[in-house]
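In response to reviewer comment 3 from the previous cycle, which asked for concrete evidence that the modeling workflow produces usable outputs, we include below a single protein chain processed end to end. The sequence was submitted unchanged, and the resulting structure tokens are shown without manual editing.
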Amino acid sequence: MVVKITKIMNNKRITFLFLLLTFCFYSLFAVANNSFIDPEKIAPGIMKVRDLVIYKGDNFHSSFPSVVKRPDGELFVAFRRAPDRKVFGEKGTSHVDPNSYLVLVRSRDMANTWTKDPELIYSHPFGGSQDPCLLQLNNGALLCMSYAWALVRPDGLANLKIPFSQNSNGFIFLGGYYLRSKDGGESWQGPYYPPHLDQEVTFNAFGDPLPSYNRGALCEGIDGRIFWVVAACDNQTSRKTSNYLLISRDNGLTFKYSCPVAEDEKITFNETSIYETPKGDLVAFIRTGDFDDHACIARSTDGGKSFQKWQDMGFQGHPLHALRLQDNRVLLTYGYRHQPYGIRARILNPECTDYRTAPEFVLRDDGGTTDLGYTWSVQLDKKQVLVVYYFNIGNGPRHIAGTILEIE
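The workflow returned the following structure tokens.
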């Protein structure tokens, strides 16, 4: 009897040890592959493969990325890099800095590894540059849209042409510019300056009419035209902005004004991405101000000659990006600057008409503060998508991060 009980106990110990080792092995595998994900945060048919750090410099504030896939499969991630002012003993870091510039990193192995040292795209001679927005053209060329701020000392402010746009740290807005590359980002031509809009009421730091500007994705239409939604300050008192459409018919050499996209007496419309549906509609995904952080949408059904009145999308999101998937559905991604801070997304139908009913899913909810977001996505292969954004953990260094999704 004693022998039999001992054998039973030994068998139970072996079984327990086997189960424990199996659990430990699975746990290590899951952690290594980032597969412990709350299933309630992933929509049916969507699996989160992993999160990744694309670039992190502990002494830098790295932010506002965009990503493109080159014809040979190489990935470019462009972003704005500036000093983390805490290295100089300052209390914090602003989104505007006299030493912010445009850089990029590359991946030649489907986002598994990235070049360590960023390459300089452009450093503005008179100010800090922001938000490099890349567009890969069908002819192989690249566009990079940006804008800049100049630090003007107090004795110079009185000499500026009024009205001008000044931020809380004393920087004066220079307006937009853009660059072009014909050799895969090895060299960049420019800067070129988009047209001034009559709706814009402010002047730049040189006293000139402000060139058009914005942060957001452009799109190249099926007919070869390039569409770009820009912002303009149309009210000197409130300093609110509205959105307007520029179109290029010469592969981005020049842009011309077309029509308003979204205007309102009280609501600010600014950072906007534009997308062309399979039917040919142009859909603008708009960030707002003074509207409880709600995203808005506006649609053109006549090729950019006019836009229907903007609509509230019914959810909160900071700048949005739209990517056409292999089956013509649209992956819409955005930062979420309300607790829990992170990155969210929806999948819309091909014509983007179900934005109010499409389920929201969470890519990340571990952000340390509201200083994150600005998503941009690219298709890696038939199933996988890379979503890039800037992020912080526990209010640590702002860095360029990404999430790889597998979408059925």
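Residues 2-32 form the longest helix (31 residues). We consider this sufficient to address the reviewer's concern, and the full set will be provided in the supplementary archive.
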